[in-house]
Amino acid sequence: MTRVAVATTSAIAADAAREVAALGGNAVDCALATALMSMNTEPGVCALAGGAYVTVWAPGHDPVTFDGNHAVPGHGLPDDERGQGKVPVRLDYGGGVSTIVGPGSVAVPGALAAVEKAWQRFGSLPWRELFQPTIDIVRAGFPLPSACRYYLGYSGELIFDRSRDGYSALHDDDGRLYERGRLIHVPHLADSLTAIASGGARVFYEGELAEAIAAHVRKGDGALTRDDLGAYEAIERPALVADIDDWHIATNPPPAVGGAVLTAMLLACGDLHASEWDRTLLDKLIRVQRACLDFRRDQLDIAEDVDAAAAELIRAAKQGQFLSRWSSSSTVHTSAVDDSGIACAVTASSGYGSGEMPDGTGLWLNNGLGEIELNRRDVDSREPGERLPSNMAPTVARSNDATMAIGSPGADRITTAIHQVLVNTLQFGMPLADAIAHPRIHVDTTGDTDQLRTEPGLDMPALDLPLHSFPDINMYFGGVSVATYDRRTGFEVAADARREGGVFLSDA
Fold first, then answer.
1. In angstroms, rounded to a whole number, what is the distance separating the alpha carbons of residues 362 and 364?
2. Model pLDDT for residues 450-490, shown as the tens digit of each residue
3. Of 455, 422, 425, which is closest to residue 441 (Cα–Cα)?
4. For residues 79 and 184, is the Cβ–Cβ distance under 8 A?
5. Cα(447)–Cα(172) distance, rounded to whole angstroms?
6. What is the pLDDT at residue 147?
7. Is 418 exposed, middle or buried (0-12, 13-18, 19+ CB in 10 A)?
8. Positive or negative CA dihedral for 353, 355, 359, 362?
9. pLDDT of amino acid 328
């Protein structure tokens, strides 16, 4: 039987991998089953009716990414019926977040299409088996995770009180938000998952679920139509590859921006010949992050041709022109490898959540059109079907003897978190657990002025940036999950304590 290692954002999700591995599933089967569990048992943080990327590198194949990101809705609608049904909200979460919720924030969800396409290409078990662990636990009820409760403490009354079934899932009879660990029962969700497990993703995109979703959104003046759902297809794309020392690192390509930003950071820091972050290297890391994230804000996020802008970013990083030229919550992730050499990384997001749950479905809908920090171009002027920007960067890597899967939740901290962990383990030689636990930094370029955010324990250089120091490690800095297999030394797997991660490793 194939041995599998999985790292993910919750212990419940890791248990799904355990069940699927016992049936003989490979790394792709286990990663997809784990991701499905996360998408359905981390309310507020993620949801099945969101977007996802799946990156796979199998022996004898080139690395590929299955693009199931959110798409612009509006097929068949006149222009004056787009852009309606939007509700602006301001959350205190993360120091202050402005977003848009309601029916008008719902983009075309693609996560399920990406999961199915990856399974068709590389999975080994029947489709139904990927869903059964999630169906069982959703029907029985699952404990509210602490990360979800933390986010819902800010968003529960502003976002997740917008639908009858969704409200009842998260609140007691007196209207109080459930506390961490309380068993959650989402009405109708197990039935919806059972239908998808029996009939495939087409049940979601073409059947009664599609009709319920589209009717709910259109009733609230949103743009998502039945035609949008029926036309959606996941796209298989060649992964973006960077070579660092003996490793070939593959991540999701444009039109997503996360993979291009990560690749540029890796290339710009590819010459670190050290074993730890001293002041000199931290200074370089800060400058690399600032340059890369400034470019992303000023160029990638507004580019008409994201492929061309990303290529320019990566070319400059490769040629050493990077620094001189451009200096100035709501995601889940699973990483899986097996001893056949397959590596699979899955990152999924529903944005901050729209708060919308069509009656009788149990499915929370995304707010992909409402993520203001991502959608710097007017989404309502884009063509229906166009993919939206994304921070997600599910990544796999291969050397002569080893394979790795890595990724993280965390909005624009996804790329900086993954980059620092990769430097820690691949270039500094840290064990995975130490590489993940190590304090992180992040240059925040989203405000009027850039700001450096740090965790404690680093010997920081002199700075020309305002500094915000967190008192302890914090989920703000992501939740990295890594699984590796080396045919000489075996498996190594670790998940981030910043997101109460879970791991699974098959018995020998």
1. 7
2. 899 999 999 999 888 899 999 999 888 999 999 999 999 99
3. 455
4. no
5. 37
6. 85
7. buried
8. positive
9. 35
**Residue 335 — φ and ψ, nearest 5°?**
-120, 135
Two structure tokens written together for 197: 């497990």
500's tokens: 């109460």
Token duo for residue 415: 């790329």
Q: Residues 415, 265: contact at Cβ < 8 Å?
A: yes
Q: What is the CA radius of gyration of the chain?
A: 21
- pTM (predicted TM-score): 0.93
100: amino acid identity, one letter: I
Rounded Cα–Cα distance for residues 419 and 424 (Å): 9
The pair of three-digit structure tokens given for residue 309, joined into one six-digit string: 């802008």
pLDDT digits (tens, 9 = 90+) for 181-233: 999 999 999 999 999 999 999 999 999 999 999 999 999 999 999 999 999 99
The Cα–Cα gap between 8 and 26 comes to 16
Task: Return the pLDDT at 84.
Answer: 92
Q: Token pair for residue 125?
A: 């078990």
Query: What pLDDT does residue 233 have?
Result: 97
C-alpha–C-alpha distance, residues 188 and 208, integer Å: 13
- pLDDT at residue 374, as a whole number: 66
Distance (Å, whole) CA 144 – CA 180: 5
- Please give the C-alpha separations between residue 104 and each of 221, 230, 379, 417, in angstroms, as whole numbers: 6, 19, 11, 32
Written as six digits, the tokens of 144 are 């509210």
Q: Which two tokens stand for residue 341?
A: 């050499």
Closest CA to 492 of 5, 21, 26: 5
Q: Which residues, including other chains, have CB under 8 Å from residue 333's CB and lie 6 or more apart? A: 8, 9, 345, 346, 347, 348, 394, 407, 408, 409, 479, 480, 481
Give the pLDDT score at 327. 36
What is the three-class DSSP state of 264?
A: helix
Smallest Cα–Cα separation from 344: which of 27, 104, 19, 24? 27
Residues in the chain where the model's pLDDT stays below 70: 94-95, 319-330, 373-378, 508
SS3 label, residue 53: strand
Looking at residue 217, its amino acid is V
